[in-house]
Amino acid sequence: MLTVRHAVPMSASPMKIYPIITIPDPVLRKEAASVERVDDDLRRLMDDMLGTMYDAPGVGLAAPQVGILRRVIVMDAARDEDPPDPLIMANPEIVNLSDEMRVHEEGCLSIPDHTAEVERPAKARVAFLDREGKRQELELEGIWSTIVQHEIDHLNGILFIDYLSRLKRNMIVKKFTKAKRIDAM
Ligand code: ZN
Description:
With 185 residues, this protein is α+β, with helices and mostly antiparallel strands.
């Protein structure tokens, strides 16, 4: 596990903090394209996404949430009192999910101020390319399992509200649609 963990990456130039896209922006419903190779430009994106996530603050961020339709996700579920523990993945793929489930009160930077309980497999085995472009496989559990599944969903245009009843989902989406209309006036 330790071999794939990085220190908080430091780019030569200052980090870019991306604006985070919120619902009902259609980009959040699109499928992201696979990364062909991990090069300096992609590492730059990874680092900027991580900076954007910490700035928000959040525990996970997927590239479509900053308007980039590529299969890149960043996560850090370390608690506030612990040192940062970032995990960066390109082309993450679920290899295996446990039958055992866990429920977590999920939120999403693209759906601010709304949380809901979502049940997902308690363990997820994930294959991915790390920040150096090396293929890795990791078994994640607990909150890490929830986050990685939530972020991979983003790459497929799926949001946590899709796991709620249609009534609940529509109520949340309507709030954001209305707020955007008022903003545009
Ligand atoms: Zn999210």
